[in-house]
Amino acid sequence: MSGPRVRVAVLISGTGSNMAALIEAGRAPDAPFEVVLVLSNKDEAGGLAIASAAGVATVAIDHRPFGKDREAHERAVDEALRASGVEVVALAGYMRLLTPWLVGQWAGRMLNIHPSLLPKYPGLDTHARAIEARDAEAGCTVHLVTEGVDEGPALAQAAVPIVAGDTPESLAQRVLTAEHNLYPQALADFCRKLH
């Protein structure tokens, strides 16, 4: 890869398995991006320790002290992103609904991965909803973040068959494996177009 890599921050709330996949992918010699910061809204998020162990800078900005003032929390998050020279933000299990303010700050440069084949099943309980609907397949979508929940333009999708006897948990595991492949590829494709 010639030229500088796109500086990416990953926002997490939990264990960060997609974050770990993105960090790993960003280490490839030809990767067009590198993860320079992992930020969580929870001090106890397991992914922070994983990122630290991988040598990536981490910061936790707990949302609880901000009470109901979501934008004040997001301004602190935005400040940390800018202080790290971040160019692209990747949401990976970041369990906060974003305000139009933060979405606007990073419009066109914030990605998310969602565990369904959008536009089907935005929001929560995607696997149970897909099984209940007797869909033949489920999957995941990487999309640009816009003000509507899971409504932004899709950048990439991966389908996973739903098999007899699937539970939301068994389907979730297979979809997560697909996510770990799809998200790094989609982020790389996106970052190649930026420079």
UniProtKB/TrEMBL annotation:
N(1)-(5-phospho-beta-D-ribosyl)glycinamide binds at residues 16-18. The gene is purN. Its EC number is 2.1.2.2. PANTHER family: PHOSPHORIBOSYLGLYCINAMIDE FORMYLTRANSFERASE. The record marks 150 as: Raises pKa of active site His. The active site is at 114 (proton donor). NCBIfam families: PurN (TIGR00639). It catalyses: N(1)-(5-phospho-beta-D-ribosyl)glycinamide + (6R)-10-formyltetrahydrofolate = N(2)-formyl-N(1)-(5-phospho-beta-D-ribosyl)glycinamide + (6S)-5,6,7,8-tetrahydrofolate + H(+). InterPro entries: Formyl_transf_N, Formyl_transf_N_sf, GART, GART_AS. Pathway: Purine metabolism; IMP biosynthesis via de novo pathway; N(2)-formyl-N(1)-(5-phospho-D-ribosyl)glycinamide from N(1)-(5-phospho-D-ribosyl)glycinamide (10-formyl THF route): step 1/1. It comes from the Bacteria. It is an enzyme of class 2 (transferase). The keyword Lipid metabolism does not apply. Keywords: Purine biosynthesis, Transferase. Catalyzes the transfer of a formyl group from 10-formyltetrahydrofolate to 5-phospho-ribosyl-glycinamide (GAR), producing 5-phospho-ribosyl-N-formylglycinamide (FGAR) and tetrahydrofolate. Belongs to the GART family. It holds the Pfam family Formyl_trans_N. This is Phosphoribosylglycinamide formyltransferase. (6R)-10-formyltetrahydrofolate binds at residues 70, 95-98, 112. The lineage of its organism: Bacteria, Pseudomonadati, Pseudomonadota, Alphaproteobacteria, Caulobacterales.
